[in-house]
Design a protein that fits this description.
The protein is mainly alpha-helical. About 60% of the residues lie in helices and about 5% in strands. Helix 5 crosses helix 7 and helix 6 runs antiparallel to helix 7.
Length: about 375
């Protein structure tokens, strides 16, 4: 019964993710129409219905250009996204000889389910996190932070790798890269339109941009401007919310897929409890954090959170996969090795300068006691 609920949950969230991604594409075209409406309002003093019809005409002309621009961003992401992420995180590919434990766990998972093994990368970062990248089978890669490898046992590390393999197997990686790119297009168009708008305001106002019409239509043109700007703001906010909602949905799917691969829900729960609140990559951008197992960065009233809370993810695993929640986990802080102030055999930083008989304390240790008869080399007596 639990398994049935788990698979139902997976199918439901996959449908929601596809719908959300389609919503992002729609918002690109909404943004283009808003830009056309603003351009017409800046150019013509005319009734509102005329401005809307003119914007519709401009939109049809701009439609192929907008589509081409979005595709160009996707092409750029296709070829360069991995190198850009590696530059941010400091991750490097590793071989079996360099990381045998990590390599063997992932290889066993892939062999058991007939999955092509992705490239392994390790980032020397104390954070407890991991993420997957790639748009094709040849590009797929899983990056693991050193802190995660040190904190998790083999079963827990296997569950995290299973989580990332599920992202790859379900197409979540491609979906999120495309989502980030499309959201970037929306942000780019929005910023460009706002810049043009304020530039027009700074250099003489809107009147210089209007080709024809009477002054009495100025108020209507101003209303059209406000409508266009409002559409852009709403579209941008919705793109962020959709992007984050898409990320939240896929994390539930990946947790469920990890349990399907490993048959060990308790290990996935234990890993999440250890990762909880310890996954911050200080130098990573928000786009990179969206790809991670957990993103501790939070937004306003949870609307802009890219990941569901660990509590919600654990609750889903308990309900649908029959796991057991141990509750929040406190990890031991590694102790710094104590440095003795003076080694037993050789005192001082460069060695023991003590001689028989003791003496005064000098900069390098106790000074030797001078000979009884004085003189720098011994007795002065002839």
């Amino acid at each position: 019964m639990a398994a049935y609920g788990l698979y139902t949950y997976i199918r439901s969230n996959r449908r929601k993710s596809i719908a959300l991604l389609l919503g992002l594409f729609v918002l690109v075209y909404v943004m283009v129409f808003a830009g056309a409406l603003i351009a017409e309002a800046l150019s013509i003093n005319a009734p509102l219905d005329y401005l809307i019809r003119a914007a519709e005409y401009d939109f049809m002309i701009a439609l192929p250009w907008a589509t081409g621009g979005a595709l160009l961003w996707i092409v750029i992401a296709y070829y360069f996204h991995q190198s850009m992420i590696d530059a941010v995180t400091g991750a490097t590919p590793v071989t079996r000889e360099q990381e045998p434990r990590l390599h063997n766990i992932l290889e066993n998972l892939c062999i058991s389910r007939g999955i092509t093994m992705p490239t392994l990368r390790v980032a020397e970062d104390p954070a407890l996190n991991a993420f997957s990248t790639g748009l094709t089978q040849q590009q797929y890669s899983i990056t693991v932070m050193r802190g995660l490898m040190n904190a998790l046992n083999d079963a827990e590390l296997e569950s995290v790798l299973g989580h990332e393999l599920t992202h790859i197997r379900n197409g979540d990686v491609q979906m999120m890269v495309v989502a980030v790119v499309i959201a970037g297009v929306i942000s780019f168009f929005g910023e460009m339109i706002f810049r043009l708008f304020f530039q027009a305001s700074f250099y003489g106002g809107f009147g210089g941009f209007r080709r024809r019409g009477s002054d009495r239509d100025g108020g209507v043109a101003g209303l059209a401007l406000l409508i266009g700007l409002a559409i852009i703001i709403v579209a941008w906010v919705l793109s962020v919310v959709i992007q984050f909602a898409l990320s939240r949905e896929r994390e539930y799917l990946a947790d469920a897929g990890s349990v399907e691969l490993t048959k060990n829900p308790d290990a996935m729960i234990a890993a999440l409890r250890k990762i909880e609140g310890r996954g911050e990559l200080t130098h990573a951008t928000s786009a990179v954090m969206e790809l991670c197992v957990d993103n501790p960065r939070e937004g306003f009233s949870n609307i802009f959170d890219t990941h569901p809370s660990v509590e919600d993810r654990v609750a889903a695993l308990v309900k649908y996969a029959g796991g057991h929640d141990p509750g929040p986990v406190a990890l031991e802080t590694p102790q710094e090795p104590e440095t003795p102030s003076q080694p037993a055999s050789f005192g001082g930083p460069w060695g023991d300068k003590r001689q028989q008989g003791g003496g005064e304390q000098g900069p390098w240790g106790p000074e030797p006691t001078p000979p009884a008869d004085g003189g720098p080399w011994g007795s002065d007596r002839g």
